[in-house]
Amino acid sequence: MSVVQPVLSVRDLRVEFVTRRGALKAIDGISFDIAKGEVLGVVGESGAGKSVTGSAVIGLIDPPGRIAGGEILLSGMRIDNLPPEEMRRIRGKRIGMIFQDPLTSLNPLYRVSEQLVETIRTHTNLSSSAARKRAIDLLADVGIPAPERRIDSYPHEFSGGMRQRVVIALALCVEPELIIADEPTTALDVSVQAQIIALLKRLGREHGTAIMLVTHDMGVIAETADRVAVMYAGRIAEIGPVRDVVQNPLHPYAKGLMGAIPSLESAADRLVQIPGSMPRLSAIPPGCPFNPRCPYVFDRCRVERPEPIQQSEHRVACHLYDQSSVRSEAVA
Amino acid sequence: MTERSYVEVNDLRRVFDVSKPWLNRVLEGGEKQYLKAVDGVSFNIAKGETFALVGESGSGKSTVARMVVGLLPPTSGEVIIDGISMSSRAALAERQRLRRRIQMIFQDPYASLNPRWQVDQIVAEPIRAFGLIDGEKDIAGRVGELLSFVGLHPADGKKYPHEFSGGQRQRIAIARALASNAEFIVCDEPTSALDVSVQAQILNLMRDLQDRLGLTYLFISHNLAVVRHMASRIGVMYLGRIVEISNGRELFSRPKHPYTRMLLDAVPDVGMTGRQRIPVSGEIPNPISPPSGCTFNPRCPFANERCVAEVPPLLGGVACHAIHEGRLGIDAAA
Asked: Which member of A149, A224, B246, B306 has the lowest number of beta carbons within 10 Å of its beta carbon?
């Protein structure tokens, strides 16, 4: 553990969804930290639990979902057990959010100026004219041309990319310590996506904001994140510096995932194929959840859950890297 | 052209009327408004080849796909498949025979399969519609064969679409496309709704089927890396026009058109962690009132007066005045 306190610290978090057929474990014991100014990418396929992790941190898990265990610490303060009213004050002030669809995260009936000023005044004691001035500065900061004029537009008058910039401005309003960006570029075209990625990176650097970037797009992570966590079936399969994980993944799932992405540089004849698909929450296999699809599976994987093992700068949850386990097969 | 291509698309255009209703126009004033979704697109596809159209949203690539399969009549221009014009009124019978050989795979495998039908009914529908096989037993045999062809179990035919995952549904859609012994398959973003590991499975399956059955694909996608992986020739679309058309290796190693270069530069690629990118400016303009001349001119760093005034023709595989004039130091034909 480093001496500097991380902005966000998640310890053994568990999230369950209670259904008639029992509790489904959407998040099953994950731990990670995000330092000041750091971008942590959370990557995984649908159903891996990456968005639920984001919602858990900002306290927006709706019933029947609930946090079943673990701790979430924001700059050392525990926030997972706060009463809703206190959590509401932290949300927006200390944690900002950016969602996938910019059209649904803005109120279509209010001008952008009203939405920005309202948010600023809720969390600070600025006068309305000072708040408006701050809103204009924010819009300029996120790269909206002619902000003094554009601020009085309605959300539908902006294009998709511009709308996402407004949402980012809204998240930055009161200089939060942490921003959770859930698929911020998925709804955008490539050329606009590149602009938004550059913007997020710059803002993180300039404001020292910690960013948790949830996405399924490995390319976005490779461009933006400092560290990356690969999630599978509610657990972190591998976490480490982005360059290492992308270029030299250790976990068999991470290996398959990287190989499955078609590349621009070379036209491989065939893509690496992971057989099967992500298990449903109601049927997560015992032991390592990846074992039915894993090419290196051995007996221990089917019975015992792998705990994260430190491998240089990575942490990887795989029995192959446990010195005490007998390897049935060498890793290629 | 020495040899006739399997698919020929000549100067295809499609205009949509997006005017306000008549009464509103009378009361509030305002002209009729038209949206040129596709504005003079031509390309050829050889038999057994994969041709891809790539572009951002609003570039008209899906409209081209729909016109090629005949789901949407073109405003002008024609589609000729295997020597038969899809728009001529004369060859009706021939055209109907041709229809069997053209199939489409759609983006959303949740919307393109009838939720009330069992999978074997879905896959058997083209067989019944075209009267390809007589006798229920033979049809069932063929359906089972098709399902195992795409990596499903013949017994899966008794299930309903909701019992399958996205990737499996896309396999069902492929089986349905193959049911009529199709030769030419138009794939409109077939893997955009899928996760990467599942996308890899479907792309591999599509290539295997092409090798085994000699299929011809028109592949529509916004994902450049997927297109790079699948296509032998690629057309890049921008606001209803093809701005560059080239073979895959050429396009990705030496892109010519400023838009293609910008697009390639914008793609976050896993391999290039830490690489500096040239910032991209602007967004696709509103297609109802596109810029004059070359539609890319407001975003182009090389634009001059001619680019604003005159539409560049597609010469040597690229539609750009700056390249034709040699201003960029690249030869169009090279």
From this structure: A149
